[in-house]
Design brief:
The chain has 414 residues and is α+β, with helices and mostly antiparallel strands. The protein is 68% helix and 13% strand. It is built from eight helices and six strands.
């Protein structure tokens, strides 16, 4: 009975340990979700968008009537004329409304709407950039982690080689300089481990920064596997739907509306108001007065200000249009480069896989020949270096595939 209870306790502890590991494990999908929620660049850009939403509401206020109250009170030490009172007060309630101002309010409102939509598309584009940056930082961390493992493996091989060489030296089978050479190579391999640890720490900090400063010291970063490597279908006709292009299109429309707003200065302006005035004299007598007024004004010439303002917006429009065309070309170039990088990464991975197999076999052959006294320490050292380089090349090619596909997904906003 005690044995059964002990086994159940051990099973419970083991299950709790496994769950604890899973809780502290971070995979790529989770990292992307955290970045979209907590990344500080996204939060700042979102505030910019919210400001444009308020600007739209602000432009709506120009299309509504204005209501105001005004009160004035006078206390005179001397009377200037006989009908004037020592004290008087006036209370005025007024409702005013702009009947026509050359469609300026409508143009300003439309401009605010387009700018808000442009900001929204810019926010979407930034989120796509953050997704790619998160994947890149995540992959870079795994790359540095694999590099550390590779250097640790190389160091262990040098340790084994050093132990063998030391025994051979003590038996008088090799010269001391051969032993020293192995010791130098072992020390160099240990330095590689130290650098790799520093690179890994930097990569972790970079990933933490993208995730809004998330503490990753107790997190286990899950490795990637080929099951998560999916190549989607990419339709180049969809490139024109990129958020950056849509943002620039909305910006162009906003500039058009701003140009219309300037043209409103060439039209007359008509305002109407209705006010109720209540007069108090000596704080006892009062009279009421209602006033309805209609006013019109027309600016015939203002020193060429409106013409110059129109030219400025015309220049802004041409600049924005040029920027739009350049962005389209840049996106097309991004796609072509990404496709090329993916093709190269796939071929490099095949080559690197074969190189790693060959380097592993070569090291084993040289190791056996060294044990038989046929190969030298130099031969074994060279084989170790070749194996280390092959492992690094395979790791790099493996992650390059992920980066190439992630870049393509960014370009098409998948």
């Amino acid at each position: 009975m005690k044995n059964i209870k002990t086994k159940l306790i051990l099973i419970s502890i083991l299950t709790a340990s496994i769950l604890a590991v899973n809780v502290n494990a971070l995979n790529l999908s989770q990292a992307v979700d955290i970045a979209l929620e907590k990344n500080l660049d996204i939060q700042a850009k979102n505030f910019d968008y919210l400001e444009t939403v308020e600007n739209v509401k602000l432009s709506d206020s120009d299309l509504l009537p204005k209501v105001g109250l005004d009160f004035s009170y006078n206390n005179r030490d001397e009377i200037a004329y006989s009908t004037q009172a020592d004290t008087d007060a006036t209370l005025t309630a007024e409702v005013s409304y702009n009947l026509f101002n050359g469609f300026k309010n409508i143009s300003d409102k439309n401009s605010s709407k387009f700018l808000s939509q442009s900001s929204k598309y810019s926010l979407s584009a930034l989120k796509q950039d953050i997704i790619l940056n998160t994947k890149t930082a995540y992959i870079n961390y795994l790359d540095k982690h694999n590099a550390l493992e590779t250097y640790n493996s190389a160091y262990k091989l040098f340790v084994e080689q050093y132990d063998d060489s030391k025994n051979r030296y003590e038996q008088g089978l090799i010269a001391k300089n051969d032993l020293l050479q192995v010791q130098v190579n072992m020390s160099s391999a240990k330095q590689n481990i130290t650098r790799a640890k520093g690179d890994l720490k930097t990569a972790r900090n970079s990933l933490s920064n993208i995730l809004g400063g998330m503490d990753l010291s107790s997190e286990t970063i899950e490795k990637l596997n080929n099951t998560t490597l999916k190549i989607s279908s990419y339709d180049t006709n969809l490139l024109d739907n990129r958020s950056e292009i849509q943002a620039l299109n909305m910006n162009l429309e906003a500039i058009k509306q701003q140009k219309k707003s300037v043209k409103s200065s060439f039209y007359p302006k008509v305002d109407a108001s209705l006010s109720h005035n209540q007069y108090f004299e000596d704080i006892s007598d009062y009279k009421n007065q209602n006033i309805a007024s209609l006013s019109a004004s027309w600016n015939l010439y203002n020193g060429g200000f409106d013409e110059t303002k129109g030219n400025i917006y015309r220049t802004r429009y041409l600049k924005a249009k040029t920027q739009l065309e350049k962005t389209k070309l840049d996106i097309k170039l991004q796609y072509e480069n990404a496709i090329s990088n993916l093709e190269v990464a796939i071929e490099n991975f095949k080559t690197a896989s074969l190189s790693k197999e060959q380097a592993t076999e070569n090291y084993q052959i040289v190791r056996n020949r060294f044990n038989e006294g046929i190969s030298t320490n130099t031969d074994l050292t060279d084989a170790n270096y070749l194996l280390t380089q092959a492992k690094q090349g395979l790791n790099r090619a493996y992650f390059d595939k992920f980066l190439a596909i992630s870049t393509l997904d960014r370009i098409f906003e998948k």
